[in-house]
Specification:
Layout: H1 3-23, H2 28-44, H3 54-73, H4 85-90, H5 96-114, H6 118-129, H7 134-141, H8 145-167
Helix pairs in contact: 1-2, 1-3, 2-3, 5-8, 6-8, 7-8
Length: 168
């Protein structure tokens, strides 16, 4: 791997990994540290990493670092999902009732997401919270786009099933 590839990778991936770590419960400083540590490892192991696998390798290194930190501290902030924030921001009438409904829906979504398998939860966050394309998710995880589409289909169906059982 050359320096230009590393710089391109940083421009493409750093914000995505940072945003995902925030959604997983990291604070800003911790997420910055994890991303920085990941890129330091990428620099250290430049010669041993295939150019084709660098995105998924970097994501895996960062996620392993995050999981190790969580194990050390034994607590994990719950995922913060802001799916309904855009809806709320676009409302012209921000009455107290609207805010209460928004808050309740947000909590309901968090509860359902936390009942999903980790892979499904991650994919839903990548696709709908971070607005990544199938191709971007594929590159990030090192999995083919077809498999990403299949897993996302299953994740959406499982989310719907959990939602219906809890709220309908």
């Amino acid at each position: 791997m050359n320096n230009k590839l590393l710089i391109d990778l940083y421009k493409r991936q750093a914000n995505i990994i940072f945003a995902y770590l925030i959604k997983c419960g990291c604070n800003n400083e911790e997420a910055e540290d994890i991303v920085q540590d990941g890129f330091i490892k990428a620099i250290e192991y430049m010669s041993g990493i295939s150019d084709n696998n660098i995105s998924s390798w970097l994501f895996t290194v960062c996620m392993n670092n995050f999981k190790n930190r969580v194990k050390r501290r034994k607590t994990l902030n719950k995922i913060i999902v802001n799916w309904y924030e855009l809806f709320l921001k676009n409302l012209h009438d921000n009455s107290i009732l609207d805010e209460i409904i928004f808050s309740e829906k947000k909590e309901d979504i968090k509860e359902c997401l936390n009942l999903l398998k980790e892979e499904y939860k991650s994919l839903l966050i990548f696709k709908y919270e971070l607005n990544l394309s199938y191709k971007e998710i594929s590159l990030l995880l090192g999995i083919s786009e077809d498999i990403i589409k299949t897993y996302l289909y299953r994740a959406r169906n499982k989310f719907k099933e959990i939602w219906r059982k809890k709220y309908e």
